[in-house]
Amino acid sequence: MAVTPSELFDLALVRHRQPWNWSLHCASMVLFCLTLLAHSYLLLASSMILFGTGFFSLNLGDPPQNRWFGFVAACVEWEKNWVAAPWNWVKWSRLLFVVCLAGAIAWVLWTRELAGIGLLVGFAALVRVVKENKDNGVDL
After folding, report:
1. 16, 54 in Cβ contact below 8 A?
2. How far apart are CA 85 and CA 64, in angstroms?
3. What's the CA gap between 90 and 95, in Å, rounded?
4. Of 47, 90, 97, 137, which sees the most CB atoms within 10 A?
């Protein structure tokens, strides 16, 4: 039985959208950030193994109802909507922004620039404040 790359990608995407698998992928991204900060090959191998494990069928049962898995459900739903949206200039600009931000985070962690880390943490705090203000009805 031959499996085409598109079928394999669809299977990986379905498994990625499971709550436990999505949690493993998040944990592997956190571990990868620690890898960049510590320059450790062991952490790199661990993060890649954890990321790959997130594509297997884990059969762990239903996740508990808590804040983390509520966040995971919201993120999976947002991801499904983002993938289904048409490719227009807004989607391209958001993708470009995220790629540039990921590159900046990787560079700052690799070089261990304290000023850059501070700027990224400050940027994240400002984004959170803007989001909370919009949720509370405060417009600029």
Report:
1. yes
2. 30
3. 9
4. 47
Query: Taking the chain (140 residues) in consecutive chunks of 10 residues, what is each chunk's mean pLDDT?
Result: 71 81 92 94 94 86 91 90 91 94 93 91 92 85
DSSP assignment letter at 139? -
For residue 113, give the amino acid letter: E
- Cβ burial 39-70 (10 Å sphere, 16+ → b, else e): eeeebbebbeebbeebbeeeeeeebeeeeebe
Q: Give the amino acid at 85.
A: A
The model's pTM is: 0.80
Sign of CA dihedral 23, 25, 26, 30: positive
DSSP output for 52-67: HHTTS-----PPPSSH
Q: What are phi and psi of 40, to 5 degrees?
A: -110, 125
- Evaluate whether 47 touches 32 at the Cβ level (below 8 Å): yes
Residues in the chain: 140
Which residue type, as a one-letter code, is found at position 68? W
